[in-house]
Known about the structure:
Keywords: ATP-binding, Membrane, Nucleotide-binding, Transmembrane, Transmembrane helix, Transport. By secondary structure, this protein is of the alpha/beta class. Helices cover 51% and strands 12% of the residues.
Amino acid sequence: MSDPHGYDKMSDIEKMIGGDYAQLTNTNIRSFGWKGVTVTVKDRQSQQPKTILSDVNGIVKAGELLALMGPSGSGKSTLLNVLAHRAASLNANVKAGIYINGAAANPKTFRRISAYVEQEDALVGSLTVRETLNFAARLSLPNNVSKLERLQRIDALLTAFGLQNQANNLIGTPIRKGISGGQKRRVSVAAQLITSPKLLFLDEPTSGLDSAASFEVISFVKDIAKKHNLIVIASIHQPSTSTFAMFDKLLLLSQGGTAYSGPVAEVQPYFDACGFPIPLYMNPAEFIIDFVNTDFARDRGEVDQQLNMVHSSWHKSRLATVTQNELTDEMARNSMDTEISAENHEQSASAISIPIALIHRSFIKSYRDIIAYGIRIAMYMGLAVMMGTIWLRLSPDQANIQSFINAIFFGGAFMSFMAVAYIPAYLEDRALFMKERANGLYGPTSFLIANFVTGIPYLFLISLLFSVVAYWLSNFRPTGEAFFTWVMWLFLDLIAAESLVVLVSSIIPIFVVALAGTAFANGLWMCTGGFLVPPQTLNPFWRYVFHYIDYQSYVFQGMMVNEFGQRNFSCGQNAAGQCSCLYETDLVDQCMIRGTGILENYGYKTGETGKWVGIMIAIILGYRLLGWLVLYVRRQ
């Protein structure tokens, strides 16, 4: 069969692997039905129950495509989520009977035999089409699926969706152009079909596409559903005439109630019989959507009367009776094939392979997408040059002691502050995680492990490159041991700062708010860190509540000990030409200042570096665990 747009649809899918690719074909699920779906929520203002869906019934047979349509606010997205065993909305009260082959659907079994394609493509722009399908397979297929079979599934789907020529093209980022919108939609659907689901839910699959691209996407989905006996339910806003005609059934909603449910072929006769004929040469989908849309009604009373008539006509119609009878017949048979539950017990990839796949994907994304770390590296190098040339070649005398202290504070505090640049990249990763989590692929543990491991080499590289420039230009203590101790503290500082970003951005996943929250937290840590006000004179509230959990305070005192613990500074001379030391130490007779005297002024001691490093690691783990808890609790 050839597409009118010139695409050959999946003619080689069986031939390509010798006809053995039977996983995709549905042989067990003959019907998917729902009865009495009712969803209510509390109105925020009146606190009274508000009905989103009211007693919606329907049934789809194997090999059929159902279009779920209705004007904005009609409840179609809510119904799609209920049918797909997803949360309808926050604090929603859901009553629904959902059946597979007439038997009540088991949530675990349902998860294994169904797939959900989001309205917005959950794709990583810096991956190629083939890599996208490969990672989808690695994250979803059980370990007993061999690598050869996994590659066969990928090649079969690339052929099935006409993506062979785009297999090695990037999906596309804001900086690097990739494949077209229609091709992205096909990749999204193909990525969900990698697990060979029998039920496929599509949330607005044609959103943002022109009529040609919409037709292309739906035609591919229709062909694969017919060829492999799949059940497809798609919410769709306003399809073109040709796209609408490709669906087998339509469920039309208006104000949460059913306005029509039945074959697409009978839409026109039904509305003609109800006294609302569809004008000749007009797109039926456009007419019926406008017909049940109340948003722009001039005469509200007349429109409400018209809708009541539509709902009443539907409940009294032959098609409503047919739907009820089909559901009743299926429930009477109640013979959900045992093969469904007897299928592979290992439902997904193992707990080890998922983090490995996520880490691999994150590394590819991080080095291809310069926004993640490339721009940050350039920004930090600019900061290093600025710092090194402002505090240029400071000599070890008492006139420069305060300059050294200022440079230490700047090096630690502002490097930490600039971690806010990671917020956009993390929010992008989090959005992808939320979508993949909703599809049951993995949880917050795997996500945060991958996030943490991926960041470590880049943060170490940033710490090293920054230090190579800033440390030696500023003339800090010139020994290899001191240099690498500085690098260690800067590395821990950046890890803690990035962990803080993860926590704040997980709590408030809105860029501007996360930016403000992280900036406020960094300002707090700067104020209580011990530089602006020495710890021993700090207000007791701020000292005991914040200073001891302030990671910047440990970085500052660690760098201070590193610089002043084993370094001496020359004193100045007064007007009479005599030695004058700002700090009285045991080297005053040599007109020198021992660095430990400067540390005593801040209450710092040497020999506690190991303890401070341990506290830093504990703070980092604390941030990460709190971030995990937030992601575990939050579902949106």
